Amino acid sequence: QVQLVESGGGLVQTGGSLRLSCAVSGRTLSSYVRGWFRQAPGKEREFVATVSSSGDTTLYADSVKGRFTISRDNAKNTIYLQMNSLRPEDAAVYYCAVSAVVSSDAFSYAWWGQGTQVTVSS
What is the CA radius of gyration of the chain? Predict the structure, then answer.
């Protein structure tokens, strides 16, 4: 059974940085696309970033371009989300997910983690 486990969330001040990680157990996912989504209270889940299996192709939501960087280490079966210049509107539960295609559509992602909370104080 595939399990995705996010870590690295926490409380940070506006302008600060956090690095999220998403480790996988149960299966090697080096041939799959891996992505990050987030959901704030009262809002729908939204796309943040995704990275192709090789790491050569990335896609970002406009709201995080230039501030967030997605990367992956296939040897460790792990992806990362480096988040810089954090804003209060970035506060949410962040989820990692797995897809067969590079997509910003959550319906393209089959496996999901349980999420990690990111809180940004103003």
Answer: 13
| pLDDT interval class at 25 (50, 70, 90) | confident
Distance CA 47, CA 25 (A): 23
pLDDT band at 1 (very low <50, low <70, confident <90, very high): confident
Report whether pLDDT(43) > 90: yes
Distance separating alpha carbons of residues 78 and 23, to the nearest angstrom: 5
Nearest residue to 54 via CA among 70, 30, 78: 30
Residue 73 burial (CB count, 10 A)? 13
122: closest CA among 12, 21, 18, 38?
12
Q: How far apart are CA 24 and CA 32, in angstroms?
A: 12
The neighbouring-strand residues paired with 7 are: 21
For 4, counting Cβ atoms within 10 Å of its Cβ (0-12 exposed, 13-18 middle, 19+ buried), the class is buried
> What's the whole-number mean pLDDT along residues 93-116?
97
